Amino acid sequence: MDEREQPALTCFDTREHWRCPILGGPVHFSYCRAMNGGLPCHRVLGCWNGKLDIQTYLQDHFTPEQLDRVFSQPAPGRMGTIFEALRRVREQNPHQE
Ligand code: SF4
Q1: How many angstroms is it from 73 CA to the middle of ligand 1?
Q2: Does the beta carbon of 20 lie inside 6 Å of ligand 1?
Q3: Residue ranges of the domains in the chain?
């Protein structure tokens, strides 16, 4: 058993990536780790490599099956990403039109 203390899922949430190549602006890690239906973005390794220990973070918080789903699925197109962002906004603000 690994005795290393596991950081919380949210431990890097306030870190910012200055320009998301999908959205075209700055994003926080909180978005990157969950924007894929609750799973990380398929680009998370490339965007966060060198800024935090992203490989260890992913291994600590996601199952091999979840990671396989993230990294083996085809990349969503720009419209798919926009619809996913809209869905998330609607979920967070259910009473807004
Ligand atoms: S990991 Fe995905 S959502 Fe986050 S900055 Fe990179 S491309 Fe954008």
Answers
A1: 15
A2: yes
A3: 16-92
